[in-house]
Amino acid sequence: MKTIAVLSCAILALSGQPRAVNAQEYVAGMFSDFGMGIQQVHLAQGKDYSTMVVSWLTAYEAPTIIRYGTKLRKLDMTATSTDVVQYTAFNTTSGYIHHVPLRDLKPSTTYYYLIGETTNQDGSASIRYFTTLPKVGKRIKNFQLAVAADIGQTNDSLLTIDHLLQDPDPAMLLLAGDTSYADCDPQRWDTFFNFMQPFAEQRPMMTLAGNHEIEFDNTTGVATGFQAYINRYRMPEVRPTEINCPFEFTDFCAPSVYFSCYDYGNAYYSFDAATVHVIMLSSYTYINESTPQYNWLVKDLASVNRRKTPWVVVMTHSPMYNSNQAHQNEAQSIAMKAAIEPLLMQYKVNIVIAGHVHAYERTYPVYQNVVDYKDGITYIVAGDAANREGHASEYISPIPSWSAVRNGTQYGHGKMTFHNDRRMTWAWYRNLDGEKILRDEIKICNTAKGLPVSCGKINAKRTKLSKFNPGRALAPDLHSTEPVEATTATKAVKA
Ligand SMILES: *[C@@H]1O[C@H](CO)[C@@H](O)[C@H](O)[C@H]1NC(C)=O
Ligand SMILES: *[C@@H]1O[C@H](CO)[C@@H](O)[C@H](O)[C@H]1NC(C)=O
Ligand SMILES: *[C@@H]1O[C@H](CO)[C@@H](O)[C@H](O)[C@H]1NC(C)=O
Ligand SMILES: *[C@@H]1O[C@H](CO)[C@@H](O)[C@H](O)[C@H]1NC(C)=O
Ligand SMILES: *[C@@H]1O[C@H](CO)[C@@H](O)[C@H](O)[C@H]1NC(C)=O
Ligand SMILES: [Fe+2]
């Protein structure tokens, strides 16, 4: 019988003809969620909508191939890759991590994809989907990007992810570091990516390096760092990873204060999403005026075309403005603030988002500690996605004049809505209330368009729904109870 079954909100199991399963597949199958042992599926966009990298892990050697297409039953394109990595850290060798870029994709288009060469052992095939982002510069009313940091993998993190998943509007998740909280336990990276899969197989997860990504391997005597981060993620790199000076070993798995020469690769990069240019920086890579990171940042900022991407978002792990007692005045924050705050101002960056402190804080528009409602920049700490270390609830007093809102006892996530070229909204939702209740919201106007930052009130009645809903793409199919013929997909699999 050929039927379609819904396994989860983004996976369709199409049954086709059962086929012989070889021994290797059989073994893989025993360890797998889905037939071929495919697990930990996650997406990352390239520099723009036209590339999407699909990453996954198999415990055993398995084909690195994707069949995909714009019609559920016509997966007529194939992509392969030689980017299959294994790495060894803490006496443990990882599974095979496959990274396959799908290139020359069309904007705002839903693609269905099938990982691996074969159907599952029972003859079914797990088909997933994603929707590419709009063309760079395309004006989409109320275009949205979700934000989280320090997410971890607790029951509270699960609530954060559920809220992200229930909201079909955000085009992607911007994750400001401290992702898995593996903390030198390699298995926890595997559980983390499985944990993120329901969201990350459907919408890109763009991340940066937090201190919990450092993970010095103290089992080999050779100082290495960021091994999981380097091997498991594929961000849109400027150049391949460079380690430009030896790592300095520390006994601590996730040192908060640490500078390295981890350059390019997943360390720092930028990309475009419709009308937004997003810059991801590394708080754990040197950023003084003679460093590659600084020089790249200057070049990147100077090259932004504000007619095409009127909005510029910068993300780091360690916050430049923080009035929590946790990580107060840490070396990373001081160094980055000293090096780049004038640059961010000069290039009229609209918002700067960090994590690290397990709390929520928003500043008034500010420059060099002075509130400036005309030209200042709004800084956010959103390290409250709910990892196992809990809350950072103690704040310094008196409240600095630039601190607008702070809360160290709630978990949640943030969302940016870009209404048009002139206005955006920053919003923070706490987990307690479900998706619909805003706990902090502020309108930010675009200084690059000649407006003062603070130029308008939130109009609560105005619709905030995005005209671009990647999480809604398959709704009709997913909710259909009608059996669906699944011939072409099966053919594509056998081809
Ligand atoms: C790693 O392996 C070495 C040698 O087999 C052993 O001495 C060490 O205790 C192991 N370390 C860990 C963290 O398992
Ligand atoms: C998470 O929730 C599950 C199911 O409710 C429960 O069994 C488990 O103990 C919880 N874990 C933690 C760490 O609270
Ligand atoms: C290595 O680091 C881990 C995690 O931080 C720690 O538990 C362990 O004691 C360290 N082992 C050695 C040999 O330093
Ligand atoms: C500046 O960066 C270089 C690495 O490029 C590093 O060696 C040096 O110590 C840094 N200086 C400061 C003041 O951090
Ligand atoms: C954080 O929010 C909770 C719930 O609204 C409130 O009880 C608490 O006082 C807030 N904390 C701060 C520092 O405002
Ligand atoms: Fe951190």
TrEMBL record:
Domain Calcineurin-like phosphoesterase: 145-360
Single annotated GO MF: metal ion binding
Keyword Hydrolase included in the entry's annotation: yes
EC code(s) of this entry: 3.1.3.2
Source superkingdom: Eukaryota
Domain Purple acid phosphatase C-terminal: 376-435
Pfam family of the protein (one): Metallophos_C
Keyword Hydrolase: yes
Reactions catalysed, as given in the entry: a phosphate monoester + H2O = an alcohol + phosphate
Ranges where the Purple acid phosphatase N-terminal domain occurs: 39-132
Region (Disordered): 474-495
Coiled-coil spans in chain: none
Annotated signal peptide: 1-23
Record keywords, A-Z: Glycoprotein, Hydrolase, Signal
Biased composition (Low complexity): 481-495
Similarity field: Belongs to the metallophosphoesterase superfamily. Purple acid phosphatase family.
Protein's name according to its UniProt entry: Purple acid phosphatase
Species: Nannochloropsis gaditana
